[in-house]
Design brief:
379 residues; alpha/beta; TIM Barrel; 10-stranded mixed β-sheet; 34% helix
């Protein structure tokens, strides 16, 4: 057995208190502790090898039918997607090959995301059905514009969750935020309400991106979403800069009113509806004190360019690329020595001086791995 990946300094696990009863299921959806349920993947990391991923984020297409003013893949002042080609999409035959590999490898879940808008990828309904045939759970981030017809049928029957990104609170504000027609808001609400009427077990939620334009209308928007039948709302601040200090300065002016709005919004909570508050400041110094990235083992990314990336923050960047699937299968590549060496060569302490969506999860895993196995039973 090879030595465990270096853990020279261990950070305190940033496990935050949940502001609701921990026994409530909705409060646990975003837990940072999920990786601890997969001891075999942690064992693989200890031995500097890669087991099958747990959850793969697949970006099937880079085209999007919306043009959000804050999209990190579209605006020039944010870090994501510096090498992204808006015309890329995973060829259907390659996608089905990837899905078949996922099924036989023992991957547990797939999350479809952007890049672009995943639900406008033409084979998406077949992708969902095919994954379900292997027992793989499926979720998707979406703008909800195509949550109808065969696509809605597939997710209603086989999906585990859908989360709709939203910002405007009416036709005018929604259209201005996304450069779409004013009727798009009412169409979206109708799509969501129709999906709820199907009585599916697939959890339909929304992610409200909070910024200067909408921060005084959070209660109004959440009320409309609750009336449409959504089960969960996640509140998060818009990212306007790669620099934490600049981002925090932007939100500092909004925070007093946002705090008031969120307090009102939480009064909407009941047995059928739950609001998760993720509105917080970012770290201003992106220091990583661990020297390998657990996210690669648990949640790698396959881009619309058919390239495997270390994580969502490094997708479509040369530094984050692990390897291409254009001329080989995902299974063959994932278990290759080439991929193993590349994955463990990424050192977050040296290579990730930016905001990291998975940092808290990485700290939990590295902290757990650094615990003396002879003392684990002394809980």
């Amino acid at each position: 057995m090879t030595a465990s990946p270096t853990l020279s300094v261990v950070e305190k696990s940033p496990i935050k208190e949940i502001d609701t009863d921990p026994a409530e299921k909705p409060a646990q959806v975003y837990s940072t502790l999920k990786a601890l349920a997969f001891q075999d993947r942690i064992d693989a990391l200890r031995e500097e090898r890669l087991a099958a991923p747990v959850n793969i984020r697949i970006k099937p297409i880079n085209h999007c039918n919306h043009d959000c003013w804050y999209c990190a893949y579209r605006v020039s002042n944010l870090q994501l997607g510096e090498d992204m080609n808006l015309r890329d999409a995973i060829p259907e035959a390659k996608m089905m090959e990837i899905i078949d590999d996922i099924g036989v490898m023992g991957v547990k879940a797939v999350t479809f995301t952007g890049g672009g808008e995943p639900l406008i990828y033409k084979p998406i309904a077949e992708c969902v059905r095919r994954l379900a045939g292997y027992g793989v759970k499926v979720g998707s981030l979406t703008n909800g514009s195509n949550l109808k017809g065969e696509v809605a049928d597939a997710f209603a029957e086989h999906g585990t969750w859908l989360r709709v990104s939203i910002d405007g609170w009416d036709g005018k504000s929604y259209g201005e935020a996304r450069n779409v027609g004013e009727k798009s808001f009412d169409k979206l609400v109708a799509n969501m309400a129709d999906f709820v009427k199907r009585g599916s077990k697939c959890i339909l939620g929304a992610s409200i991106i909070i910024g200067e334009r909408n921060h005084t209308h959070l209660y109004e928007l959440c009320s409309k979403l609750k009336d449409a039948g959504l089960e969960q709302i996640k509140l998060a601040g818009v990212i306007v800069s790669n620099h934490g200090a600049e981002n925090n300065a932007y939100h500092r002016e909004l925070k007093p009113r946002v705090t008031e709005e969120i307090a009102r919004v939480k009064n909407l909570n009941d047995d059928q509806f739950h609001v998760v508050d993720h509105y917080h400041e970012l770290d201003e110094r992106f220091q990583r004190r661990y020297h390998f990235c657990p996210t690669i083992q648990f949640t790698p990314v396959i881009g619309a360019d058919s390239v495997v990336y270390a994580c969502q923050d490094k997708a479509y960047t040369e530094q984050g690329a692990l390897g291409s699937l254009k001329d080989r299968s995902f299974k063959d590549f994932w278990f290759s020595e080439e991929n193993r060496k590349r994955a463990f060569a990424i050192d977050p302490a040296a290579h990730c001086p930016h905001n990291c969506a998975n940092h808290q999860k990485n700290v939990v895993v590295t902290d757990f791995m650094a615990t003396d196995e002879e003392h684990l039973m002394f809980v």
